[in-house]
Predict the 3D structure of the following.
Amino acid sequence: MSNSQRNRRNFIKSALIGAAGISSYSMLSSCSSFDDYLFEDRYSFQDEVMIIGGGISGLYLAYKLRSKGTEFRLFEGSNVFGGRIKSNTGIDYGASVLSSQNILSNDLVKYLKLETKNLDKDSIYITSGMQSLSDTLVERIIGLIPYRNFRLRWKLVAIEKMSAGYEMTFENPTGQKKFNCRKVALAIPPSQWTSITGLLDLPEMKWAKSWLTSMEIQNTIKIILPIGAVPVSSKPLVTVEHENVILRQVIKKARSSPIVEVDVSYLTKSDISIDYIYGALKKKLQINYPFQKLSTEQFYDWNQVKLINGSGFKNFMAVPESVNRNFQVIGDFTAHSGIYTLEGALQSASQASELFL
Ligand SMILES: Cc1cc2nc3c(=O)[nH]c(=O)nc-3n(C[C@H](O)[C@H](O)[C@H](O)COP(=O)(O)OP(=O)(O)OC[C@H]3O[C@@H](n4cnc5c(N)ncnc54)[C@H](O)[C@@H]3O)c2cc1C
């Protein structure tokens, strides 16, 4: 490349980084060939931390690393950040409630200046929807560094241990790309591990094969009902069990909200139909509502979200402490307290950020 070409390219690059800002971020990042053109990626990232997964644990790790001045790259396989956080017009289809005792999530909510309301004396929710937490966090991180540190639609498909670090293969809309690095944070649900060639053969993941086979995957769906469908007497947060379905939480969000959210957990192996779940709901909560008429917008099945599918487990088995500081497995399932919660995901990311230093 000639000097004039290089200068022109650098000019376009810096002008676009400056002009892109937050609002154009998603447009730019979804345009992979443009992305590749602007930011020719190196093969070797040496000591930059490669974060795989852009759910809240991957995002929070990125935030912590950035605040400590540690270089990182984050790769999200789907076309959105947030993972199991998903909201639309204030309705939460995934995580919804935070305990008022939580330390990290409450601090984060305050730092991001998000408005909250009390659900009851022990729990709060974000009025604009939980997705504001992941969206605003992404904006904060991107606000200070070039957006190339975050990639959407880059899915890890293979990993191999090399003499110097790890070689990772990503699939993106334009094909495949290989990178080498010394530091990896795996922030994806365990149910996805087997789809990554070589992952379970790494010495760092030796424990995972038997760990995975002894775990029973549990799925969660979210059902959104009009507030009138649930008796006034039902408590805002209740957990009930009916045969092998757990109605984990019934969430009535303040009096002003017209909806009730119900998290329903069930074992993947069991043959459970939506009618069965409605039956269980009706019986346990004594709801008299014509569920059959519910439209698909009132029902969110995480089982259909490929990269998140089967994120929870019925039985709990602690993830062993990592012996290799350069290869960290993070996520809500690794948390010592608050397993399968947002707080647990943040704790796990926070610990990893200390080990990567
Ligand atoms: C219905 C429901 C209700 C919930 N309610 C609450 C609640 O009220 N309060 C609470 O605290 N918690 C709740 N949770 C749990 C909470 O959502 C999770 O604990 C938290 O979001 C987990 O974040 P994570 O980053 O660990 O994982 P995830 O959110 O699963 O993120 C993993 C990310 O990795 C990506 N990925 C997967 N494979 C690859 C790959 N090969 N390459 C690149 N990227 C990949 C995925 O697309 C995803 O974005 C709820 C969950 C559900 C499903």
